[in-house]
Amino acid sequence: MGVYQLLTECARECARGFCNELAQMCQVSGMEFNSEPVIPIYSARPEQVEKALKHVYHASMNRTKGKELELLLAILPDNNGSLYGDLKRICETDLGLISQCCLTKHVFKISKQYLANVSLKINVKMGGRNTVLLDAISCRIPLVSDIPTIIFGADVTHPENGEDSSPSIAAVVASQDWPEVTKYAGLVCAQAHRQELIQDLYKTWQDPVRGPLSGGMIRDLLISFRKATGQKPLRIIFYRDGVSEGQFYQVLLYELDAIRKACASLEPNYQPLVTFIVVQKRHHTRLFANNHRDRSSTDKSGNILPGTVVDSKICHPTEFDFYLCSHAGIQGTSRPAHYHVLWDENNFTADGIQSLTNNLCYTYARCTRSVSVVPPAYYAHLAAFRARFYMEPEMQDNSSMGGGTKAGGESGVRPLPALKENVKRVMFYC
Asked: Which residues form the Piwi domain (predicted)?
């Protein structure tokens, strides 16, 4: 018993030291960060995670006289099984807590680089910005800065092979600031097994008291944009991830129609101009420099330089598509993203949409480098992956049931728990 108490006290001291170091890093990065926790460090066994979180929530509410806890820092075992998912599900669907998880190995061996990376995530979870395009500040982004523009990202993740009845999960994120286009909000829903078309983009239903009502993810995010900026978007740029070439026009027809209906439901004759772009990463095309020995045409890993675009020769002869390698390769051969512009009412030039897409890749919040896929699509993928944790354990065990965020009973798919309002803007930052 005495040895266990000694180990526990040692762990607490390490946790205090880690928290102080993290607070200092956040302060150095420009955040106002209280270095003293609201309540003392609380430890619990993994199987008691729900009880522990509720204790911390109520204890902090009592200490702050009813004010919401702004950030929960959780230190998890290195091999934590389902603990991470359980913690996120309880925090984000039950208590409305914004949390940041760290592994024990990083607490015992503190690295400045790790602390800097965690501080990036904490800043965006608290509503800050890590990066903003210089052209956005000076309102010089073509076909974005001129009129209020909202940028969407959407993705659908399907269950693993062998799971014959688990639901597919769709996620849609949308920018919530203009002209900066760096802050996003996201919504998730579950839908029929292996269904690629996003069913909840727009929907109508009959209320026994209020009559016919309309809703859906596009409509909700447009309303959220207007509340955040004070303006309604007059241009929509929609990046759609995870669509195979055989489904391009099926997805375009269904989802473009849903966007149109969502806009019309908000205001008669409200039809912003739409550009619909599919993003693909799963392909076998690789790009190489003409002269591999010319060090000015490759980066230090031997890959093509970030920002390389190919839109001829290996692209479709008549359709509007291009390959963009927006990231610097670190290991192995860089895989470019393949963008297909399926619909364009905004009349982007090839250079215009390529430049915008490449520039957006520098605004990804969780790192200081450019990323390989445009951030709205990346965030949608992360949100859909996160939403799998929201499925209650009995939902996952019961093969006849599924998950969603909206009204249940549709197509036999059980809805996911509703997200708390403050979580919708941060759940895809992980």
From this structure: 71-392
